[in-house]
User: What shape does this take?
Amino acid sequence: MSTQTSTPAPAAATGERSSLLRLYLGRGVLAVAWALAFARAHEDVDAVAITLLVVYPLIDAVSSLIDYRATPNGSERRVTAFNGVLSTLAAVAIGIAGAGGVAAVLHVFGAWAVVSGAAQVIVGLRRRGPELGKQWPTLISGGLSVLVGITYNNQAAGDNPSLDVLSVYATGGGVWFILQALLLAWKSRQLRARAA
Assistant: This one.
């Protein structure tokens, strides 16, 4: 019985690293932009706020689709597909929860953050080879997403839940994605220098 290795061949690793660099950078910038927009628009859970709330997991779903198409067959590809489906369902659920107010939104967002963060950790662990920069920012970001999601569900059950925390969540996630992109860029430069 053959086992599939998670370490890509050099040429494949270069292509995957370049694809992931663009994906992580774009995902990070979009998350920070979303956080800035949501910070100004969430005083009331109105149509604008709900639209932005739905858009955030959809950004993750599209990112997962792009990642899925660029990832070789294997367990990380299946987890990426799962995360894309999960994020699409989360977008629908958050849109529905918006009618129930802040607490309902926090419950759904928190549950999504827990499961999506766990999926991110699994993918990061699969990509921990030296060719892809060890994935420390991805692992930290996914782990924090799990912890923060649990916190959001606790807040939702409290007396005064607030959506202020979601801008902080998106900003933190965006920064970690950008850091992962910078790490991949540094790794690419390092490997090119060795090959020269």
DSSP finds six helices and no strands in the chain. The radius of gyration is 18 Å. Confidence is low (pLDDT under 50) at residues 1-9.
